[in-house]
Amino acid sequence: MATLEDPFGKVRPKLVAARTEFLAELARFQAAELEQRPSPEDWSALEVAYHLYVVDGLTLQEMRRVQEEDNPELPALETEGPRVTRETARDLSLDAVLAGMAARREEILQFLAELPPAAWERPCHHHAWGALKFYQLVNVLAQHDRQHARQLVEIRERLRPRDSGTSQAASANSSLSSS
């Protein structure tokens, strides 16, 4: 079986870049906006950040399973992650969420750094994606971070709508006051 050369060296920059992209988008929020939801059914920016923390933990558990079990069936993290996030997102603070995200991602990177190249080829099975190799599961984390970085852009745009009606009203008011 052919193995990847330095798989950790290849994936680490992707994981770091994707997380940096997410954090850059999160930093563009005003403090007062972090907990605002664009609608009652949507998450706030802080809840999205907490979700990444939760999913990193769930994914680390599954990565360990792939290394310990033969071809394990992975749970539906795409539904499990949001469920756990909704059930546990209480009294969130930005500092606590950021610290948790950093610690959890460091734990993942440390775990991955210690794996031999052959371990990255271990198989697993996902209910929707079918047969996967370990390295493909790891790459999903970077995709997940980028997906939620885009979500933060959408949340911010919805919280700060470009309201042309407001500028028109201001123009009308200034015209009336100068008459």
TrEMBL record:
Lineage: Bacteria, Bacillati, Chloroflexota, Ktedonobacteria, Thermogemmatisporales
Record InterPro entries: DinB-like, DinB/YfiT-like
Signal peptide: none
Record protein name field: DinB-like domain-containing protein
Region feature Disordered, mapped onto this chain: 69-88, 159-179
Record's compositionally biased regions (Low complexity): 167-179
SUPFAM superfamilies: DinB/YfiT-like putative metalloenzymes (SSF109854)
Protein source organism: Thermogemmatispora tikiterensis
Domain DinB-like: from-to ranges: 15-152
